[in-house]
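> run fold Transposase
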Amino acid sequence: MKCRTRIYYSESQKALMWERWRAGESLQHIAELFNRNHSSVEGILAQTGGIQPAPRRRSRLALTLAEREEISTGLAAGDSIQSIARRLSRSPSTICREIKRNSGEKGYRASHADELAWERAHRPKVCKLVRHRVLARIVAHKLQLQWSPQQIAGWLKRSWPRDEDYHVSHKTIYRSLFIQARGALL
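> ok
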């Protein structure tokens, strides 16, 4: 059997896939454009149920790359957080969080910070109960004992007050139960 290395499609290649898919072309025909098997194209299209996702956009409230460059320049010049915030018409707490979140005052790099922010903003996020299987088993056990999601969420916070990995909101539990989001409790 022929084994190929994993391929990552660019955004323009994915756009072409969606365009051809909307035009009614077969998976095999679309895959031939990229010299790949139909299953690689099927994986891209199936991730969103065959419906093209909206293009990713940055929130108007999020810091831009230009603002991050200004933060980086200001830090290098020894400016205070308050003066940087005034220049950007942003809250000092926004600037402070941005710096702490991205390597601190000495290691802050605008391009790296922007890349990390873009990755953190990626939606949909993987459900916490999928990522943390021990937590999922604990929640499932409590549900079998007829505990409500609110009771479980409160109990987890009291039982593990310093361990954020064991904190989950009641909404996450409801979502996993009733919508079966990503099969979290299966």
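Residues 180-186 have pLDDT under 50 and may be disordered.
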